[in-house]
Specification:
By secondary structure, the protein is mainly alpha-helical. It contains 4 helices and 3 strands.
Length: 108
């Protein structure tokens, strides 16, 4: 899997990981990640191609209702998202509480 973790992809993954079991539709993802549709949808397409996201169209329950396409992180997507975001935190020197940072080898 060759995921390029841009700041925009990072924002999308963080939104998904807020509740990785919750399917999300495009407009809600746009609002939560604060991204324009022209940025979000190519990211979702790439994540789906990589096997990190699965999508499914809903069946409208009302006659005039437009169907929504829902996106959900796959099991592999959850795993990779956690690994990539943890690595990013390490690279930035801002490891989450409860995680360890590699030793620098220096003496205090």
């Amino acid at each position: 899997m060759s995921l390029k973790l841009t700041p925009q992809v990072e924002r999308v993954l963080r939104v998904f990981l807020e509740d990785s079991a919750a399917p999300r539709y495009g407009y809600a993802l746009m609002k939560a990640a604060k991204l324009a549709s022209g940025t979000l949808y190519p990211i979702l397409t790439r994540l789906e191609t990589e096997g990190m996201v699965a999508s499914q169209w809903e069946t409208p329950t009302e006659e005039n209702q437009r169907p929504r396409k829902y996106y959900l992180l796959t099991g592999e997507g959850v795993r990779v998202a956690h690994l990539e975001l943890a690595q990013l935190s390490m690279d930035r020197g801002t490891a989450r509480p409860g995680t360890t940072r590699p030793a620098t080898g220096g003496i205090g």
